[in-house]
Design brief:
The complex is a heterodimer of chains A (110) and B (113).
Chain A lengths: L3 E3 L4 E4 L4 E7 L6 E7 L6 E6 L3 E5 L2 E6 L4 E6 L8 E8 L5 E3 L3 E6 L1
Parallel strand pairs in A: 2-11
Antiparallel strand pairs in A: 1-3, 3-8, 4-5, 4-9, 6-7, 7-8, 9-10, 9-11
Chain B lengths: L3 E4 L2 E4 L5 E7 L5 E7 L5 E8 L2 E5 L6 E7 L2 E6 L8 E8 L8 E2 L3 E5 L1
The chains are: A mainly beta (110), B mainly beta (113).
């Protein structure tokens, strides 16, 4: 089992819709969870971090964490073409060892 | 005033050569990382240094040797380059006192011919 698993996509949604990205992780003691956005040819850019169970909202983005199910998700409301990118789920293990999923490629169609 | 910078941005070289990639951060962070991102976009940690001390050393060939002359710099030297080393290499940094968020450099695209 991979340490961090994501559906590679591509995920395609129409402009204005909600995009839902999912991630599961294997290490139960992980405490910190992140979503990074990576445009083609660019470096990963942090968009959300979440540390406790429940929802965390920041603008059009909502991260959801369920530690019992070892599940993290990212919702993007009112999706825009500029949201088209690869979204990387990252989980921080002990010793601040960050593990990344393979990423989900999102395309928002105008 | 880039926070995490890497040089060079592109590196094209022949198999068997030795090359170095440099990373510098001006954020005052105490922990730095090297990641490799392959053609399938999978981002994998290679090394981590905290205050010039190696704390994470994943299973990478010993042809790869990181060097941290001070807290602000973490360089990556690669000996005897192989075709499979072709990838994008990202440097990242973090301030331990400010949590676990990592900030990435722009990446170095290495192509081995």
């Amino acid at each position: 089992q991979k340490e961090v698993e994501q559906n590679s996509g591509p995920l395609s949604v129409p402009e204005g819709a909600i995009a839902s990205l999912n991630c599961t992780y294997s290490d139960r003691v992980s405490q910190s969870f992140f979503w990074y956005r990576q445009y083609s040819g660019k470096s990963p850019e942090l968009i959300m971090s979440i540390y406790s169970n429940g929802d965390k909202e920041d603008g059009r983005f909502t991260a959801q964490l369920n530690k019992a199910s070892q599940y993290v998700s990212l919702l993007i409301r009112d999706s825009q073409p500029s949201d088209s990118a690869t979204y990387l789920c990252a989980v921080n293990r002990a010793n601040n060892d960050m593990r990344f999923g393979a990423g989900t490629r999102l395309t928002v169609k105008p | 005033d880039t926070a995490v910078s890497q040089t060079p941005k592109y590196l094209v070289t022949q198999m068997g050569n030795d090359k170095s990639i440099k990373c510098e951060q001006n954020l005052g962070h105490d922990t730095m990382y090297w990641y490799k991102q392959d053609s399938k976009k999978f981002l994998k940690i290679m090394f981590s240094y905290n205050n010039k001390e190696l704390i994470i050393n994943e299973t990478v060939p010993n042809r790869f040797s990181p060097k941290s002359p001070d807290k602000a710099h973490l360089n990556l030297h690669i000996n005897s380059l192989e075709l499979g080393d072709s990838a994008v290499y990202f440097c990242a940094s973090r301030a331990k006192s400010l949590g676990t968020t990592q900030y990435f450099g722009p990446g170095t695209r290495l192509t081995v011919l």
